[in-house]
Amino acid sequence: MSELIAFRIDGALVDTQTAALKQLEGSPVYFDNSPDSLEVIRHSTAHLMAHAIKRLYPEAKFFVGPVIEDGFYYDFRVSTKINDDDLKTIEKTMQALIKEKHPIERIESTKAKVSKHFATDDLKQEVLKRIPEGVVSIYKQGDFEDICRGPHVPNVRILRFFKLTRIAGAYLGGDETKEMLVRIYGTAFADKETLRDHIQMIEEAKKRDHRKLGNELKLFTFDEEIGSGLPIWLPNGSRLRSKLEHLLFTAHRKRGYQPVRGPELLKSDAWKTSGHYDNYKENMYFTVVDEIEYGIKPMNCVGHLKVFQSEVRSYRDLPLKFFEYGVVHRHEKSGVLHGLFRVREFT
Question: What homologous superfamily is domain 220-346 in, according to CATH?
């Protein structure tokens, strides 16, 4: 049987140390490729990576290192420029740390004491700002420690199957008005074969990356002079879009949808009535025309409501089905923009 690494107790994952100290019982989580296990493995591998970075770059300061779909990342600040070639060095240092077999310890304290402990670390203070009052946990392995809710595996020695995949920049807390940190992505599994298959899948996906194909097939481009997240459709891409729109138009009409068209610019009063102004304002673009505030639409629904209100309706008219190829704009943060998947203008 695989090694026990955590428990699921009352819907939450708990490390073995905490379960033993507090005499908690739950469903065991073993070292395998199950979703619960991978969450713990990847979270622990993120800390292992940070430990290696700290050993290589003692001045490094760390922000957050969460588990994400298919892997993990860590955001940190370092004075030395790090590039893709350095990933191998970090991986080798991670392997060296594994051989040192550091146990992973959870330490619980108050927010005030943790703040005092990390008094000279401004990034830790940023993390603490986002944590409510109460118990704050620190996970420690060897000479590395970080604020973290956990859980983690009992010992780094089992974290053998990982790969650091890429380096990127990320604004502190996703706020583009703040400093740019270094972000390293990686992934981890419970065995060599699954890791190998995943890496092979990533390499194959790179060949089919829509950004690569968009450039090679001259479908679309981006230009910083125009602005981030604002795609420019080239002739080939525009023709492809037209064909897709025709297919969708036909499909919608067959299903009883009626085409409509609304303006891209609406008075802010309309957005206040709909609730967008209170709940979505930070993701919208605004301008003032003749001393009246207008908002560029982030979605089509308000215009469609006005279509519905344009005449007296009866319940016998329902259901009414409208569709629109409406151009919408959303203020996506720079750090999440990604080809055509996350943009600031789309249809």
Answer: Bira Bifunctional Protein; Domain 2 (3.30.930.10)
Query: In this structure, what token pair is assigned to residue 226?
Result: 């125009």
Tokens for 342?
């996350």
What pTM did the predictor assign?
0.79
Q: For the chain, first and last CA: distance in Å? A: 52
Question: Looking at the DSSP assignment, which residues form a beta bridge with residue 293?
Answer: 288
Contact 167, 83 (CB under 8 A): yes
- When pLDDT is cut at 50, 70 and 90, the band that residue 222 belongs to is very high
82, 182 contact by CB (below 8 A): yes
Structure tokens at 102: 């550091």
Closest CA to 227 of 292, 192, 282, 176: 176
Give the pair of three-digit tokens for residue 49: 């990576």
Domain boundaries, the chain: 4-208, 220-346
- In this structure, what token pair is assigned to residue 300? 């089509």
The CA distance from 278 to 299, in Å, is 15
Predicted local distance difference test score (pLDDT) of residue 61? 98
Dist. CA 170–CA 189, nearest whole Å: 25
